[in-house]
Design brief:
With 244 residues, this protein is mostly helical. It folds into 2 domains: 147 residues, no CATH class; 76 residues, no CATH class. Helix content is 72%, strand content 0%. Helix 3 crosses helix 9, helix 4 packs across helix 6 and helix 5 packs parallel to helix 7. The longest helix has 40 residues. The radius of gyration is 29 Å and the shape is rod-shaped.
């Protein structure tokens, strides 16, 4: 969509498309967020249109202009806020689902006897060299050995170690979880990318949400509380006049 120079660029839907994680693999999931930001951007634009018309209406006092522009701001917010909120919750639900997929347990693919031998080999490495941290020299420790298997796509080796209790391989349980995650991300890089994208847009929404309120208040020229006070006074005066 086009650019409205009256509105901060931070609310333009291009903010979503500009994320590093936005590409052909993720645009399908992120399209609803793009649409939500489009609604926000268009909504703020409509409030600006009303403000510009109000300024030209010499029949209205400054207070009346504030009331009318705030009314438009309230209507616009009521329309686009649910869309943005829904997009955020959908992203969170999607991220939680992928998180489960990338943390799911695996089953050993090799024959039982082969898997047992693989675990025994890894346990021997663990007993000789330790497994407390990720080894940066693949093949030099139990963890490094498994990492090398992950990088090589060696499903038989990886699942033999990660598809059984950690103590059978002499690997720390928490380290086994880390290695399991590495295996899933290596096996399904698109899912891992989608997860990063969903988390990125969730952060974006949380970062820009306060800016929406600030932008609307800037357009109105007064705080919502002040505008409400003016509207209440106006309504009270109208009611009093109606009783005469």
């Amino acid at each position: 969509m086009g650019v409205d120079t009256r509105i901060t660029a931070s609310l333009h839907p291009q903010s979503v498309a500009s994320l590093d994680e936005y590409d052909s693999d993720t645009e399908g999931e992120l399209q609803q967020v793009v649409q939500a930001f489009t609604s926000v951007y268009e909504g703020v634009g409509k409030v600006l249109d009303v403000r510009d018309m109000a300024v030209k209406n010499t029949a209205w006092s400054e207070d009346m202009r504030t009331i009318k522009v705030q009314e438009m701001a309230d209507r616009a917010f009521a329309k686009f806020a649910p869309q943005l909120d829904k997009a955020f919750h959908n992203m969170r639900a999607g991220a939680e689902l992928i998180e489960k997929q990338l943390s799911a347990p695996v089953e050993a693919r090799a024959a039982h006897s082969i898997s047992a031998e693989i675990r025994a080999h890894v346990k021997g490495l663990a007993e000789r060299q330790g497994t407390s941290t990720l080894d940066k020299r693949p093949g030099q420790s139990a963890v490094g050995f498994v990492q090398a298997a992950i990088q090589n796509g060696d499903a038989a080796t990886v699942t033999a170690v990660l598809g059984a209790p950690a103590y059978l391989s002499g690997i720390d349980p928490k380290m086994q979880e880390v290695l399991l995650r590495q295996w899933h991300e290596k096996a399904n890089p698109v899912a891992a990318k989608r997860l990063r994208a969903m988390r990125a847009v969730m952060d974006l929404i949380q970062d820009r949400a306060p800016l929406i309120h600030m932008e609307l208040e800037r357009v109105v020229g007064k705080s919502p509380a002040y505008a409400k006070m003016l509207r209440d006074k106006h309504n009270a005066a109208e009611k009093a006049l109606g009783g005469i």
